[in-house]
Every structure is written in structure tokens, then in C-alpha cells.
Amino acid sequence: MKMLKAVSFTLGAVALGAAATSASAADIAAGKALVEKGGCVACHGKDLNAPISPDYPKLAGQHQDYIYHALLSYQISGNPLVGRNNAIMAGQVKSNPAVTGKDGKPREFTRKELKDIAAYIESLPGDLVLKK
């Protein structure tokens, strides 16, 4: 009986995990469209791999989860423990002309849109080197 419960629990967890993954899978094409419309190349350069200033990071090939959490952190203000403090990036993710609300005004990127952007950026060939 214990074995049957364990197998049942495991199958349920796998099914739930698969459903969550497919429901939140990022859309690279949508991310590309958002990056292009959002004008990210203005600072991060061609293919997001040639910044206009050494102060700006190369993004191409960066890990999706890192990019997603960084972008999300720029949307958080007033909390130095979880937010990031950069006026340019905060403006980009909080009020970007690439996305508009029902009123036609720029709005904040949704979490799904941030995941799409992050997936696209990770898909780009870049100079990221992993050291082990």
C-alpha cells in the first residue's frame, strides 16, 4: 500500500510539474519582437552583444533565469534587498513603448513578457564563458 501511495504521489508530482512547465514556457519569437520593439540595441548593441559603453553589459547568451530575475528586479522600487537601482533600466521595464495598456500608454512588462525576453536573450550567441 505504501508503494502504491508513493508511485501515485510521484506520478501526480510529475504531471503537475509538466503542466506548470508547458503553461509557462517562454516564447522566443515573442521575446525577440519585444526586444526589437523595445529598442534594447540602443544601449546593448547589435545582437545584444556589442554595448555602446563598457558600463553596459553584453546580454547575448546570458542565462535565462538570471536575465528574468534581473529584469524583474528593475521593476521593484523602494526595496534595496530585492530591487535594482538603475534609472534607465527601471524606466525600460516599467514604462516601455514596446507594450501598451488598453489606454494606449506604455505599461510595465508582464512576468510572461519578461520570461519571453529572457528566453530570446539566452538563445543569442554570445561571449559568455562558464568556468568550472
Automatic annotation (TrEMBL):
<dbReference type="Pfam" id="PF00034">
    <property type="entry name" value="Cytochrom_C"/>
</dbReference>
<keyword id="KW-0349">Heme</keyword>
<protein>
    <submittedName>
        <fullName>Cytochrome c553</fullName>
    </submittedName>
</protein>
<feature type="signal peptide">
    <location>
        <begin position="1"/>
        <end position="25"/>
    </location>
</feature>
<keyword id="KW-0408">Iron</keyword>
<keyword id="KW-0813">Transport</keyword>
<dbReference type="GO" id="GO:0046872">
    <property type="term" value="F:metal ion binding"/>
</dbReference>
<dbReference type="GO" id="GO:0009055">
    <property type="term" value="F:electron transfer activity"/>
</dbReference>
<keyword id="KW-0479">Metal-binding</keyword>
<dbReference type="GO" id="GO:0020037">
    <property type="term" value="F:heme binding"/>
</dbReference>
<keyword id="KW-0732">Signal</keyword>
<keyword id="KW-0249">Electron transport</keyword>
<dbReference type="InterPro" id="IPR050597">
    <property type="entry name" value="Cytochrome_c_Oxidase_Subunit"/>
</dbReference>
<dbReference type="InterPro" id="IPR036909">
    <property type="entry name" value="Cyt_c-like_dom_sf"/>
</dbReference>
<dbReference type="InterPro" id="IPR009056">
    <property type="entry name" value="Cyt_c-like_dom"/>
</dbReference>
<feature type="domain" description="Cytochrome c">
    <location>
        <begin position="26"/>
        <end position="125"/>
    </location>
</feature>
